[in-house]
Structures are given as structure tokens and as C-alpha cells.
Design a protein that fits this description.
With 86 residues, the protein is of the alpha+beta class. It contains four helices and two strands, in the order αβαβαα.
């Protein structure tokens, strides 16, 4: 039920310059977050997900790289579609 509501919001807000970054912690079942990452029906891919179960062994630089993995591609997409003008 909540996944449907969240999915609808991600689809709705794929038309505006908002990027969602989901991070899974704690060796849990991340199925919902992974499905949101691959959600269809969006104007642009406005979300990313990665699991960070090894948080104690990740350097700050690696964490930064993981957090921004899809962001540059998203910027290109929203600019190309006129969602973000800069």
C-alpha cells in the first residue's frame, strides 16, 4: 500500500527538479527501495538506491561517489527536457 503511494509521488514529481537518493542500511530487505529505483512511468529517472551495509569500511570519498552516482545523469536529463534551466 505505501509502495503504491510512494511510487505515485515519484512519478508525479519526476516532472520537477527533485532527485531522490535512497540508502539502505542494516542488511535488511531492500526490495521496495530497489523497485522504486527502477520504477517505470517517470518523465526522468529521478531516484537512485544503493545498499550501504558496509558503512564502517566505506571511506568518505567512496560514500560521496555512491551518493552522487546517478545525479550527473539526472542533471543532463532534466536539462534536456527543460525541467531545469541553468
Amino acid at each position: 500500500m505505501k509502495r503504491k503511494k510512494i511510487s505515485k509521488l515519484l512519478i508525479k514529481y519526476s516532472k520537477v527538479p527533485i532527485f531522490w537518493q535512497f540508502v539502505g542500511l542494516g542488511n535488511a530487505d531492500y526490495g521496495v527501495l530497489q523497485k522504486l529505483d527502477d520504477l517505470r512511468g517517470r518523465v526522468v529517472d529521478n531516484a537512485d538506491f544503493f545498499a550501504l551495509d558496509d558503512i564502517d569500511s566505506v571511506t568518505d570519498a567512496e560514500l560521496y561517489d555512491r551518493l552522487l552516482n546517478e545525479f550527473p545523469g539526472w542533471l543532463k536529463q532534466v536539462r534536456a527536457k527543460g525541467i531545469l534551466r541553468s
